[in-house]
Fold:
Amino acid sequence: MYLTIRPAAMADVGVITGFNAALALETEQVRLDAARLEAGVCALLADPAKGFYVLAEIEDRVVGQTMITYEFSDWRNGVFWWLQSVYVEAAFRGRGVFGRLYRHLEDLARAEAGVCGLRLYVERANTRAQETYLSLGMRPSGYQLFELDFVIRRSTEN
Structure:
């Protein structure tokens, strides 16, 4: 299996949107609004300040992805890279696809001045993913995630 890793481009919106919809349904039993999801993927791809996607390909077929977003830590005077939207097609799981994506991102992060670490969150019930993250050297942080989720209001301009 020859696997390549590359940054995503606007031409990849369809596959990324499809993977994100599959991820939400599989891990959280949530059906995402397709138009809102596509707009979100496009917004990130159009603005590098928001983050970036990295894709894994086998024979020119995208089989996995990870999105990186940023969090500045004043305690460390550095930036954490958050791994999000982690998805590998079911037929390619257990074959090292995510491990290669992860090592690639770890190498990029270590080479980037000001990056102080990698973080991600995972569903409590997703023990398979947790085992994978542990096997790659990640450890539980001791923090518990809290959130308040609401619909974003967009200003209307005349």
